[in-house]
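Exercise 7. Given the encoded structure of a 169-residue chain, write a plausible sequence.
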């Protein structure tokens, strides 16, 4: 049984009461996220890296040698989540962590040869999932969605006074 939220109609503006289902930004973002996660999980079920591992390894490779804080910033995650995600990959020999030569307190993450092989073995499945989504929504909707998502992240972070990070073009 679904609960219906009763709202009182008021003038548009900050005083307006929002219907949780029809007006909640997180509700719609989560719905799309679940659809995409299902698509990517189905495509990547037989490859060495999960979706979260794949995006993590891609980011580490792009930033290499990458400090945990740099990876966390690029992925909009906290350091403890990055550490938790990297530990099994380090154990499997896909990533390694080394002390910086310049500052022994700083540790860098790098992708090993075994990690690059896992990345290559997972890449086609990831591309297949991306292509399925692209074909489902079409090029114009994809461009609009991508731009809207990136613009919204920047606007929200600016409003919340969250430090900006560089993002891929």
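Solution.
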């Amino acid at each position: 049984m679904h609960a219906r939220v009763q709202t009182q109609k008021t003038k548009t503006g900050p005083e307006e009461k929002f219907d949780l289902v029809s007006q909640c930004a997180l509700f719609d973002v989560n719905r799309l996220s679940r659809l995409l996660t299902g698509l990517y999980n189905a495509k990547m079920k037989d490859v060495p890296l999960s979706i979260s591992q794949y995006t993590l390894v891609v980011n580490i490779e792009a930033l290499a040698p990458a400090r945990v804080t740099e990876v966390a910033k690029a992925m909009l995650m906290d350091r403890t989540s990055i550490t938790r995600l990297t530990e099994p990959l380090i154990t499997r020999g896909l990533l390694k962590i080394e002390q910086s030569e310049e500052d022994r307190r700083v540790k860098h993450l790098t992708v090993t040869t075994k990690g690059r092989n896992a990345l290559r073995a997972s890449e086609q499945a990831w591309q297949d999932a991306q292509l399925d989504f692209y074909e489902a929504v079409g090029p114009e909707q994809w461009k609009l969605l991508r731009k809207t998502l990136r613009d919204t992240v920047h606007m929200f972070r600016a409003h919340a006074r969250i430090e900006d990070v560089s993002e891929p073009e």
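Remark. Residues 113-159 form the longest helix (47 residues). Students should compare their own answers with the one above.
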